[in-house]
Write a structure and sequence with these properties.
The structure is a homodimer. Chain A contains ten helices and 19 strands. Chain A is an alpha+beta fold. Chain A has two domains: 134 residues, Creatine Amidinohydrolase, Chain A, domain 1 (3-Layer(aba) Sandwich); 216 residues, Creatine Amidinohydrolase (Alpha-Beta Complex), CATH 3.90.230.10. In chain A, the strands form six sheets. The first copy, chain A, has a six-stranded mixed beta sheet, with helices on both faces. In chain A, α7 packs across α8. The radius of gyration of chain A is 23 Å and the shape is elongated. At the A-B interface, α3, α5 and α8 of A face α3, α5 and α8 of B.
């Protein structure tokens, strides 16, 4: 309930009548209700003082109550006009709606136009940054989930390493890893598991397929799990057989770059400094052009959330932020290598949540 | 390429300068490039005559080329302003942009405002319905994928039935099913697999957990797979041990209702008639209040797409449409039952793509 209170305080401070929250991850953060509405309307409406309500498909009303939500629930059927139900439920609670906070980074233009048509004089305020800021600093309960999710990610890499064998396909390893980690308590994967091998590792977002692993390959694992609604995200690159000098040089550069970024993490460091720490190591080694993405992204209920750690972000780090550190070098003629950990900014430094070893593992 | 041509013809017909498509499923339909951009900008821009281009993160440029896309590709880095790159690439191709078609059901208000700021005089047209209409009618290549996806869904149910055993948990069965179907060729599940049991079946969107299956339970499977980018979606409800008369009556009512809906599918039938055929069977049996959702939804690249089969949709069915038929009765005091098939509207009737038997299976 304290998270809803934060939104209420924001509404009071800015004299906003109400907030309509439709991003499922934000709804989970605020209400503990988790659902994927597809094209249907799912929202929570919060007022300065009046009781909040969840609007959802009729068939989910019982689920909302079952998680212990003790406030209003408005269910609509597939033949109903959901926005009419929304409108009525708002009018039951407040006499006039003149300023509504919405998530402009989530709500579609189509729905926005429906709102504009229904409330012609209504003004809109942007709520995204506000909720992103609440979510930016994790509390102890959230950290427990994130630590457990990271532990399961470590376990998944361990399973993956044990599966590596000449002739096995990438997809076979994906299956073995996902099965093992779910048996160990992961709710689901936080995104489609990546296991790619050989030259395919040079694609940062490569897709696993039927390629059989060969001696001399680097095998890149990028995966994460969801535990009690919180995500992990880890990358390790493993060698099958003795690596060449060129492969080794790329690996050691990425490893050194990743450690350089970890070493600067503490309250007060700017987000961009985390990026630049790794980037300068990679540039000095002559691979600057082959590191085409930011160093990392925030992690929590969403697998990508704030902060975004680019070379341009001047945000100072604060205790309680959790994000990935994942430099990579992608040489299409040799190999790709990425090493990624999840880290927490602590009072005076950093806690690395993922702990699978980073010395090059040769199988 | 013919799908891009459809958009070009639409632009010419309506004197629209260009279309910006950002829905990943539509991008896949138009370009064959599949990617999950998270918060990054991914789009394809199509003109009346000039060459189309894909705008994507720099790290995905090689992936775009690898799938055989022979047109323009614009990559931007995480520190770049993606909309500036978009702007420049458009200006390289046409001298004036006055009317742009966008997907109002997909693009966010935030991005819309960025476009408005960058192109102050720009007018916008809505493109969603147009592309949804192309995707509404499946061609033979698409139908081959949908049939194969349905076959894999049948197989998943078969595996699930073999896993049913007193004491096994819902999540254990989920794992076994997913593993088996992926080994058999499914790229991934089309949504989070549902295996729920006992009274939990009374939640249409129930979430599998650690509940152990008991004798006397109904076990509800709702799952689907993705095969070459196309989705299936099947539901079967299975009994462990002899059902009670009340359970049996609910099951037989749903089965009869589902068949009634299938029986009316042919070109010219209105979407709502498919819904009402099942709904009237369920209402006559006295369960009307316990069927709180539409009869089904379109199926293709998205697991929910057009047509939406509600009791209010007057759309006439046409040959080549594919959708689900999934009535359910959810009695929280007895059990939930849902039976779902994927069907194709043929020239003179219906082809049921999912074929797992629907007589109550008692284990």
């Amino acid at each position: 309930m304290s998270n809803i209170k934060k939104v209420q305080d924001f509404l009071i401070e800015h004299a906003i009548d109400a907030a309509l929250i439709t991003n499922p991850d934000n709804i989970f953060y605020l209400t503990n209700f988790r659902s994927e509405p597809h094209e249907r309307l799912l929202g929570v409406v919060i007022f300065k003082e009046e009781e909040p309500f969840i609007i959802c498909p009729a068939m989910e009303v019982a689920d909302v109550k079952a998680i212990g939500w003790s406030h209003g629930v408005v269910g609509y059927k597939d033949t109903d006009n959901a926005f009419e139900f929304l409108d009525n439920a708002i009018q039951e609670r407040i006499s006039e709606l003149t300023l509504l906070a919405i998530e402009k980074e989530h709500i579609t233009v189509d729905r926005f136009e429906i709102l504009q048509e229904r409330f012609p004089a209504l003004q809109f305020a942007k709520l995204d940054g506000e909720i992103a800021n609440y979510r930016l600093i994790k509390n102890e309960t959230e950290l427990d989930c994130l630590r457990k999710a990271a532990e399961l990610a470590d376990y998944a890499i361990e399973v993956g390493c044990n599966e590596i064998k000449e002739g096995k396909t990438e997809l076979e390893i994906v299956q073995a890893v996902e099965q093992a980690v779910k048996q160990k308590g992961a709710e689901k994967m936080s995104f489609d598991t990546i296991v790619i091998s050989g030259k395919k590792t040079a694609s940062p977002h490569g897709i696993p397929g039927d390629r059989a692993i060969k001696n001399g390959d680097f095998i890149l694992f990028d995966l994460g799990v969801v535990y009690k609604g919180y995500c992990s995200d880890i990358t390790r690159t493993i060698a099958l057989g003795e690596p060449t000098d060129e492969q080794l040089k790329i690996y050691e550069t990425v490893k050194k770059a990743q450690q350089a970024s970890i070493d600067v993490v503490r309250p007060g460091t700017l987000a961009k400094e985390v990026d630049l720490a790794a980037r300068s190591v990679i540039e000095e080694a002559g691979y600057g052009e082959l590191f085409p993405h930011r160093i990392g992204h925030g992690l929590g209920i969403s697998v990508h959330e704030y902060p975004s750690l680019t070379a341009a972000n001047e945000l100072p780090l604060e205790e309680g932020m959790v994000f990935t550190i994942e430099p990579g070098i992608y040489d299409p003629t040799i190999t790709g290598v990425r090493i990624e950990d999840d880290v927490l900014v602590t009072k005076d430094g950093v806690e690395v949540l993922t702990k699978f070893p980073k010395d090059l593992k040769i199988i």
